Amino acid sequence: MAPSEFHSQSAIELINVSRRFLSPQGKSFATLNDFNLSVANGEFIALVGPTGCGKSTTLNLITGLGKPSSGEVRVMGKRVEGIDPQIGFVFQADALFPWRNVLDNVIAGPLFRGEPRKDAVLRGRDWINRVGLAAFEGHYPHQLSGGMRKRVALAQTFINRPKILLMDEPFSALDVQTRVQMHEELLSLWSDAKASVVFVTHDLEEAIGLADKVYVLTSRPATIKSVYEINIPRPRVISEIRYDKKFIDLSRLIWRDLKEIVQSGNSVAQGG
Amino acid sequence: MVAISINDGAITYALGTSDAEIEAAARNAARTRHMKVVVWRLVVLAILMGSWELSARNTWIDPFFYSYPTEIILRLWEFIWEGSDGVSLWVHLYYTLTAALIGFLLGALAGIVCGIALGRNRMLSDIFSIYIKVLNAIPRVVLAPIFILILGFGLASKVAVAFVMVFFIVFANAFQGVREADRAMIANAQILGASSWQLTRSVIIPSAMSWIIASLHLSFSFAIVGAIVGEFIGSNKGIGHVIQLARGLHDVPLMFAAIIVVLVVVLAAEYAMTLIEHRLVKWRPASSSDAQA
Ligand SMILES: Nc1ncnc2c1ncn2[C@@H]1O[C@H](COP(=O)(O)OP(=O)(O)OP(=O)(O)O)[C@@H](O)[C@H]1O
Ligand SMILES: [Mg+2]
Predict the structure, then answer these.
(1) Of B190, B192, B202, which is closest to A156 when you measure between CB atoms?
(2) CA–CA distance, A207 with A199 (Å, rounded to integer)
(3) Are residues B81 and B220 both part of a single domain?
(4) Which domain holds residue A129?
(5) Would you give the DSSP letter of residue B84?
(6) Is A144 near chain B, with CB under 8 Å?
(7) Are residues A123 and A16 in the same domain?
């Protein structure tokens, strides 16, 4: 069977992936062990799980910045070798270039990829408009608020037209109001871009509000404990969604699940 | 309106004071303060020079060794217009500065290139770090006689001393700057599509830039020190040579005059570096732009 045909539905696939690291004492330990995950084209999934379970590691493997110790990572049906240009990544930490102003930050990707500056600037302005920063084109990152910097990061990522969007706790440093605003913006950008999204977060409400599916991971080495389909219709209004009956039920359910993992994780820690 | 109370340097204004009034008052306060500082600096200078002059005139200190400020000024004047030994000051200065500048440029360039190369390459840095550490442990000035021996009494040996003075400082800073480059920023650039060279050029170098600039700032005066030390040991031109010559002739005022010349040159160079620094790192947050009203 031709793999590309077989996996044509999946944007991202992790097949029996293991990732091992060395402890400072030189002992090898697994962060991921026989991990399987599949994200359909255009699907928005959220990963939640206890801290240190391997969420960032998983994203790292998908980008190609990290390599699996065994198993296979596929993006758009192709085995990942190096960094795939179809991938966009929004970081938790500020990853903007502080010596470039907003416009130059946004057009960094196109310029790296060899687009003529004139075209890049045109598209850059368009994206800056879309994230509502038209008046701040010439500002440097240190002159912007945290929320504005995240908008720049979104524009910087979306301008590359990623087919796959990876986000590692992108909004965790923002206050609640700004975060809800960013959620709405992200959803509208996403519905235009038709990208597949893997969104890592510790915030359950964020996960349920944004995603089609929420994956709950166990402690290290991470395995998928359960998957929840979030059948709340789109377009969603994030600021209202917390009052939705389905939302409340799902929250309760997933909370219970996570609590179990954390408790069993603690008892394992105590036992050994 | 007027200020009604002062605490912690922040002034509380009466109700209804307009922004324009606050700004004007702040400007005035800043100007007055600045004037005060300048006046006091001049007073300190006058006291120091006055007591030097007085002590020498009354032979509380031996004028043969310490000279008099007035005589030093006269000698400086003479040095500027007539030079020493029939050679103009400008010829000496030109010679010293040429050596310092060439040494500085070469040293800085080599330091930056090596620092970045080793900072970017784990293997290279593991191999060479030990040698750099060893070389760095040698006080640079002890190399001067060796350079004179190898390269002769001409410009090359002074350039070499200035070079080693500059190289290690710039190298260490460039290396550290590369190592401190933010991991998330590097990953971001790679995912945005930067090639290895683009990564070096548009992420690694700019983030190491503030380290490099700081080291350039420091090392330019070191380059001048290097050139002068080289001239002390063997030269027939240059400010270092003038000082050496004046020592032989017990011409103390000339020694001081030459020191003043060096001092002015180093200060001017520092000032120029500060200007360049401000141009290069304009993206950095101003250290304190809070409106202090
Ligand atoms: N480069 C590395 N070297 C050694 N160990 C690593 C490395 N990267 C990650 N780990 C280990 O792998 C485990 C998982 O890390 P990871 O960053 O993926 O967790 P995470 O799920 O993203 O946690 P958090 O929610 O706190 O961000 C951690 O225990 C960490 O110690
Ligand atoms: Mg993480």
Answers:
(1) B192
(2) 8
(3) yes
(4) 97-161
(5) B
(6) no
(7) no
Chain B residues at the A interface, defined by Cβ less than 8 Å, are 182, 184-185, 187-195, 198, 202-203, 206-207, 209, 281, 283-285
Q: What share of chain B is helix, strand, coil (3-state, %, to 5)?
A: 80, 5, 20
pTM: 0.80
B161 & B280 share domain: yes
Cis status, amide bond into A235, omega within 30 of 0: yes
Name which of B14-23, B115-124, B166-175, B208-217 the model is least confident about: B14-23
Query: Does residue A58 share a domain with residue A80?
Result: yes
Cβ contacts of A143 on chain B, cutoff 8 Å: 285
CA of A198 to the centre of ligand 2 (A): 13
DSSP-assigned beta bridge partners for residue B10: B7
Q: How far is the CA of B185 from the centre of ligand 1 (A)?
A: 18
A146-164: average pLDDT: 92
For residue B284, the chain A residues in CB contact (below 8 A) are 98, 142
* Cα-only R_g, chain B: 25
| Residue closest by Cα to atom 14 of ligand 1 | A54
**What's the pLDDT tens digit per position in A114-123?**
999 999 999 9
Place of tokens 């800043």: B30
